[in-house]
Amino acid sequence: EVQLVESGGGLVQPGRSLKLSCLASGFTFSNYGMNWIRQAPGKGLEWVASISSSSSYIYYADTVKGRFTISRDNAKNTLYLQMTSLRSEDTALYYCARRGGRTPYFDYWGQGVMVTVSS
Amino acid sequence: DIQMTQTPSSMPASLGERVTISCRASQGISNYLNWYQQKPDGTIKPLIYYTSNLQSGVPSRFSGSGSGTDYSLTISSLEPEDFAMYYCQQYDSSPPWTFGGGTKLELK
Fold this sequence. Notes:
The complex is a heterodimer. Chain A is mostly beta strands. Chain A has strands at residues 3-7, 10-12, 18-25, 34-39, 45-51, 58-60, 68-73, 78-83, 92-99, 106-109, 113-117. In chain A, strands 2, 4, 5, 6, 9, 10 and 11 form a 7-stranded mixed β-sheet that branches. A 4-stranded antiparallel β-sheet of chain A has the order 1-3-8-7, with no helix packed on it. In chain B, the strands form 2 sheets. A 6-stranded mixed β-sheet of chain B has the order 2-10-9-4-5-6, with no helix packed on it. By secondary structure, chain B is mostly beta strands. Classes of the chains: A mainly beta, B mainly beta. At the A-B interface, strand 5, strand 9 and strand 10 of A face strand 4 and strand 5 of B.
């Protein structure tokens, strides 16, 4: 059974940093591209960042470019999102999602981890 | 960036009813359109990929169609578990891959 379990969220002050993790199981992690997608309270979904299976291709939304870094450790079956210079507008539930194939189709999602940026 | 507009934003409906949710792209997206369902507990699951292909395990009462800029998700006969949020997502060309604003399907 495919499982994606996010961790590392919490309350953080504006300008500070936080690192999210997503532990994958039930599939060969190194064969799949992965993504972070977020949802602000009461809002819709926003794609944040994407990384290919071998980390060769990385993309970011303009809203986080230069502040967030996506990475992965295939030996540990873990996806990361390093978030710096956090802003109140980064407050959201952050989902880890697997890319289902060659196209950006997100076929498995985690339960999400909450990040709250507030003083 | 390609903008996705979903309508309606909320839809009251009854069990057994046939409903259609629409999604319009700001430019043609060549059928590169997916649909997702989000339950009240936050659980998200894929429903349809590339406009009309049903994800494995998704009931056949769900269907998708469309072309160019206009796409739709239809549920032929609503079941209790179908009352949820629905999102479309485009993936034409390079990122960003954008979602529609969502449609909340509510019990009338």
